[in-house]
Amino acid sequence: MTETTQEIETAQETWMPQETGTAPELFNPFLPGFDENPYEHYRMLRDNNPVQEHPMGFWFVSRHADVSALLRDARLSVADRNLAPGPMRDQYEKLIANAPVKLVSLLDSDPPDHTRLRSLVGKVFTPRSIAALEPMVTELVDEALDRIADTGSVNLIDALAFPLPFAVISTMLGMPDTNPKRLLELTETLVIALEPVADPDVMRSIVEAEVELSGMMQEVIAWKRNNPADDLLTALIQADHNGDFLSNDELVAQILLLFVAGHHTTVNLIGNGVIALLRHPDQLALLRSNPDLIGNAVEEFLRYDSPTHQTRRITLTPYQVGGREIPAGAMMIACLGSANRDERAFGPDADVLRLDREQARHHVSFSVGAHHCLGSALARLEGRVAISRLVSRFPKLALSGRVRWNGRINLRGATHIPVSV
Fold first, then answer.
1. Among 28, 196, 361, 401, which residue's beta carbon has the most beta carbons within 10 A?
2. Helix (H) and strand (E) counts for the chain?
3. What's the CA gap between 346 and 358, in Å, rounded?
């Protein structure tokens, strides 16, 4: 049993309320079959209880119009310190109580800190700098496909989807010689913080991983200051806005954000996208007959089976959404996965994979507004190159067994995609 599985089982026992007559209308990620397909549950919530106050202390928002509106609303916070007393505040305080490292990234900062961080990091994540990475990404993909061809039958997550974004991030940062296995182990632990956390032992492991990772990254930054190069980390160190630079702690936070959130979302984009294609042979045939469709296809993959299912906002004042008033200091969970399947936004075939869907790009998988993901162009590039070259290289590509999912509620993706080529 993995640490993630243990955490989810603990959450299942302690996090969810007891069954009541209204339980079917409450968000419940522990319903039978949710792991394989959460979208039917999301549809029920959109239809019957789209803005709900959950007994565990948060508000759950599931329709596209409401999710899009709150993501764009500059009056809302992403800083957990603004939570009012209650279960969500208790969880936050338990998580940080013994953490000697206090890192602030773009994900959890409000203006003016967010504005400053984004302006500095945005100087590095430009469309031109991301586009320049395509030859490197293509080379890494082709090397992985060569290994797959030699083997003939693989778990696509292990063979392509997982190692590719990790290698891309490491290469683009210009990481010096480190212990990549240990770095990967620690980031795998840290990513659990993006899920509901109730087990004190898991909380401790997350804090310990962050401390160890922070120490590793401080050493990397110190080395890079003495050995600058033509790479992303050097550019982040040297990013200047009117004489302002990122501090060491800020640099660590942005690097860890890349390795944790940036890595896993791209794994899920590639894995979930390939699963969707192989389960829809008509769309696979369409892509093979029209390779130029890959750009829009990636947007449809992002919509159809979201790499990230939830993000949060915190109210600073009473807030109106979907006809409900949410009090100040409340945690709102915006369900991106549900919003992306909303028939009100994408039509009656929202549950259908359609690579030529005109509104595919209206998905909210990378958020919208001030917190739109700065790494979205990189994820799109990797998804486009990996999936297009995979399906063109292997005309007999097919699932050869049962897909296994990671059991995560937020960063939902597969751990095992058996394919034959």
1. 196
2. 19, 11
3. 9
| Ramachandran class of 174: left when φ > 0, alpha when ψ lies in -120 to 50, beta otherwise | left
Q: What are phi and psi of 20, to 5 degrees?
A: -135, 175
pTM of the model: 0.91
Q: Please determine, for residue 282, whether its predicted confidence score (pLDDT) is greater than 90.
A: yes
Q: Do 71 and 367 form a contact (C-beta atoms < 8 A)? A: yes
The predicted pLDDT at position 14 comes to 46
Q: What amino acid is encoded at 353 in this protein? A: L
Nearest of 67, 51, 50 to residue 59 by alpha carbon: 51
Question: What confidence tens digit (pLDDT) does each residue in 223-268 have?
Answer: 999 999 999 999 999 988 778 888 888 899 888 888 887 899 999 9
Measure CA of the first residue to CA of the last residue in the chain; give whole Å.
Answer: 30
Residue 213 and residue 190 in contact, taking contact as beta carbons nearer than 8 Å: yes
Hey, CA dihedral for 264, 268, 271, 274, is it positive or negative? negative
Please, is 365 exposed, middle or buried when counting C-beta atoms within 10 Å of its C-beta (0-12, 13-18, 19+)?
buried
Adjacent-strand bridge partners of 334: 61, 311
- Predicted pLDDT of residue 180: 80
Question: Pseudo-torsion of CA 113, 114, 115, 116, nearest 10°?
Answer: 50
Give percent above pLDDT 90 in the chain.
65
**Location of structure tokens 């750009």:** 295
Mean pLDDT throughout 151-172? 95
- The phi-psi region of residue 31 (left if phi > 0; otherwise alpha if psi is between -120 and 50; otherwise beta) is beta
Domains annotated on the chain, with CATH: 3-420 (1.10.630.10)
Across 141-157, b (16+ Cβ under 10 Å) vs e yields beebbeebeeeeebbbb
DSSP 8-state symbol, 244: B
Is the bond into 112 cis (omega within 30 degrees of 0)? yes
- Secondary structure class of 230 (helix, strand, coil): coil
d(CA 280, CA 278): 5
- For the four alpha carbons of 126, 413, 93 and 218, in that order, the dihedral sign comes to negative
Whole-number pLDDT of residue 86: 83
Q: Which of 7-11, 250-254, 376-380 tops mean pLDDT?
A: 376-380
pLDDT of residue 18: 43
